[in-house]
Batch of 2 targets.
Target 1
Amino acid sequence: MTLDILTPEKKLYSGDATLVQLPGVDGLFEILNNHAPIISALGNGVLKFKSNTGETNIKISGGFVECLNNKVIVCAESGTVI
């Protein structure tokens, strides 16, 4: 699946991912390939994703995620790769 992680200041990541773990407002959840369509609010926490190059962690503060047709778009208020 493809993953785009955006903040108002910049694009933090754009590329392929095999797993995305997100800090939802009610707790952590994961999105895998062929996930059902979803739009969800995000809370403060660590977004984790796996790709061919390994695992990446990004500390985010709030935002939203949309998943549709194997494309995941994360719009975060702010984000820092950790």
Note: The beta strands are 2-6, 11-16, 19-24, 27-32, 38-51, 54-68, 71-76, 79-81.
Target 2
Amino acid sequence: MFIIELTYKVPAAEIDAHMAPHIAYLEKYYHSGHFLASGRKEPRDGGLIFAKASSRKRIEEIIAEDPFNINGLSDYRIIEFKATKKNKGYDEFVGDEQ
């Protein structure tokens, strides 16, 4: 399981101008089963994506496709963790890619 933290490097107006392709990117990875949740941080200086993948390298490949990354709008921090306490929905989401 991974948390991807985005920190914007540009004003919100530039982020908003690239939001439609970013949303399409998110939808692609929700549909593939990699993303569980995503959203803006408050204050609005970036966002978070909760994701699963077989490896950190795979997460890096996924991030490489984000239009925010391609256009140099955001920095990324990847946090990997192994859950020690969780509800049964967690195991259902993570599945074989733990």
Note: The first helix runs from residue 12 to 17.
